[in-house]
Amino acid sequence: MTGRLFRIRGLVQGVGFRPFVWRLANELGLTGWVRNDGAGVIAAVSGENWQEFASRLRSEAPRLARIDAIECAPAEVSGEGFVILASESGEVATAIGSDAALCPDCIADLCDPASRRWRYAFTTCTHCGPRYTVSRHIPYDRASTSLAGFPLCAPCAAEYTAPADRRFHAETTCCPDCGPQLSLLDAAGQSLAGDPIAETLRLLRDGRIVAIKGLGGFHLACDARNAAAVAGLRERKQREVKPFAVMGLNAASLSDLAYIGDAESALLHSVAAPVVLCPKGEVELPGIAPGLAWLGAMLPATPLHLLLWHEAAGRPAGTEWLKQPSDLLLVMTSANPHGEPLVIANDEAQGRLAGIADAFLLHDRDIVIRCDDSVVRATPQGAAFIRRARGYVPVPIALAEDGPTVLALGGYLKNTVCVMKGCEAYLSQHVGGLDNAAAIGFLEETVEHLLAILDVRPEIVAHDLHPDFPSTHLALHLAERFKVPAQAVGHHAAHLAAIAAEHGIDGPLVGLALDGVGLGLDGGAWGGELLRLDGADCSRLGHLRPLRLPGGDRAAREPWRMAVAALHDGGLGDRLADWLERTWLGRDAGPLLTLLARDLRCPPTTSLGRWFDAAAALLGVRDVMAFEGQAAMELEGLAARHGPLPPLPGGYILRQDGLVLDFTPLLAALLDCRHDAARGAALFHATLAAGLADWALAVPGGLPGKRLAIGGGCAMNAVLMAALRAGLEPAGIALLEARQVPPNDGGLALGQAWLTRRASQLV
């Protein structure tokens, strides 16, 4: 019988796509079959309604599916009815998807007193729930997950084997009779009586700190409205001022605290359910995000978290209560001692979080791999990643071309790992700074897990140019282990290459690499670079005027030192004493001036991040930072609250035929703005953007393809990016930005892999 053969490519395995096809075909009266194949899903149909079938394949695809392409061709289709066929042996290794927020159907089950899953904290189906964080290796089936030790009861087994059920082949499905269970322990490890959810809520209402086991690790939770509890959490976690995220039931519950527009709401309610940076609202909770203009907002993404709000609402039946505001607001921050990786195991939590948590809400489903919350920001150009992790990993990034399998180990801060396989790049979850043995151990775990779930062996290993990074050491070790070459990649070249990789850029590309610091191709400390990428080659077209770091790395943590150096070297030394006395009384510039005069322990850097630090200190915003990027974030917040200004006329100079961009003329204006720091911050951002735009537009021969790439940590500054975009628009220049990966060091591994693959293809 003549029919149609459909090949569906994309993320269509392990997401309920085959039963969706089965149900759709039966609804339309079509005969045929569906099965997984090596490239996705293949379906053969026969019947009058095949065109409607084709249309609805895309428009009604399962919640977690991502269709990249559908190919249709005539075919002979025989047989009666419509069936799901088993995959041919050895043909398919079903991909592992990302963890997904609780779906509406499972929420309804959770809130239905007549359901087997009434208030069950591990309710899930093919449309939601954990995947990545419970999977040990492929193929993705129950035996390969941490649910292996929970055999299905008869009712769950019946759902699992019924194509018409949304739990058909849902590998993490379970119920109270066969699945994981909750328990609540006190600080001494003793079980607390009563319902674990109800008792946890009582403790939180009483101002206690509770460690809650989530999908990819533990959260430390406290009442966000309780200033004493928030302050206690900061003290215990040694997190002086770094912002906390707040979880609320819905957008209405957070509306006083944050502006949640359509874009922010879409992100909050997406299957990834990330932390979304939103502009602060009219009410500010003490101690949550001090000094910043944005609040990290999140919604309950798991049944366990949602049950806290269900309990607070009085355990109502049905789902109407979800539409009402709730006064319950909880701080949800990563559960880890200062500087260490996220806690994932029950015993580990009670040990590593001793003295921090007052109680532990636990369950007996193991977390296989650590995976922190993702953090994103809505922009007019789409979502921008601050941190890419839960909900997005390991969804691959499509590449324009094939090549050898490359493993890239990223950098030192905000570390991630990338495996480039075929026409896809798989970026790991956020690993973070490699400051200690525990963090390096997490990096090693991440590498092994990513290779296992992709079932690959690298042909090349890429790493940062810096020889002393732990990621570099591990890369060299892995290259020796696999008997493959290792390739060093320039830090700032990798920033731009990550942009080129996700945008599929083949030809030459000019871009700005703007960050705090990275080892340059000349051995110096770079961070404000105008570069040209052409194939695997990267050349430096220009850089920012260097600033000296009096005292070395200490200056990168103390903005007042950067201000002293900027004024001294910028010919404004005569104003330094007055500024210091009026702004940072008690700071003694004498020793720094001696170092600068003798050029001792004052290494130069072209970093734009250090210009931000100097500006923050000059305006009286920040003299010493408690966390990386604090000064720049506070400066951005002030500029955002003030609103845009025109750039300072003559606020920058292009020197040496455009080789050097110098913002020294801006310094005097900032000194005059110290009584209006917000205006000074707005002026600083506007002038930076104007200078960067003019610098790029002055490239000899023009910008190839009339486009400019921008990467590095400074590209996360929303105010700077908006002004730069506006400055380039009149010239018809498109600004290429990171969208699928963070622009900061979290995207380095993608760029490293892309450049390394290109270099290998030229050999």
Explain what this protein looks like in three dimensions.
With 763 residues, this protein is α/β, with parallel strands linked by helices. Among the domains are: 2-84, Alpha-Beta Plaits; 182-375, DHBP synthase (Alpha-Beta Complex), CATH 3.90.870.40; 545-687, Orthogonal Bundle (Tetracycline Repressor, domain 2). It is built from 22 helices and 30 strands. The strands form 5 sheets. Strands 6-13-7-8-12-9-11-10-14-15 form a 10-stranded mixed β-sheet, sandwiched between helices. Strands 27-28-24-23-22-29-30 form a 7-stranded mixed β-sheet, with helices on both faces. It is globular and about 90 Å long.
Quick structural overview:
By secondary structure, this protein is α/β, with parallel strands linked by helices. A 10-stranded mixed sheet has the order 6-13-7-8-12-9-11-10-14-15, with helices on both faces.
